[in-house]
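Hi U.,

Before I forget, here's the chain from the pilot set. I'm dumping it here mostly so it's searchable later in email.
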Amino acid sequence: MASQPDPIAEPRLPMSRERVLEAAISLADEGGIESLTMRKLAQELGVEAMTLYYYVANKDEILSGIVDLVVSEIELPLPGADWKAAIRKTAISAHDVLVRHPWAASLMLSATGSSPARWRYMDAILGCMREAGFSADMTDHAYHALDSHITGFTLWEVQVQIDPETLPDLAANFLRGLPVDEHPYLVEHVHQHLKPRSPEDEGAFAFGLDLILDGLQRIRGTG
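Structure:
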């Protein structure tokens, strides 16, 4: 007698390029970009490794594709919005997205190939600043200042990743090996890390971002 299909079994999703890329992102989020191999990706999808090549040409296309999907999660500035508020919102969104996908910031710096989402992201920021009255030269400098802060800060943050619960012990161990009388301001700085943050304190990323935006606001229209 032929076996009957399990009525409660979930239907298998059809394979597609999008499904391959989403599975690749899940693997990278879970184990880091080094964990993303064609073999592991095929296992994750329940197919043979060669099947993947019906949907992507090679691993480089996967890397380019997952960067594009991650960048597409960033909230872009809306046309006609106040430039400062819009850029701030986009920058914070970009930082949040890149922290959510800790492998993405470094991969964005090395990714090659077409990236429509990256192009839209860059064009939206550049356009927001040009329409706000920044000159082409000033927009060029402003974009790179913002991009350096977003990418650089995020790279530092995802690589350090200190568990808040272990921070007191780390600080105590650090201070035990430090000649505290010779470095009073460093000691003070360590204790600042142990203080509870005010609900109004958005953190170091937002602080640095606001310094950049305040500076750009002062020079808008002068360049």
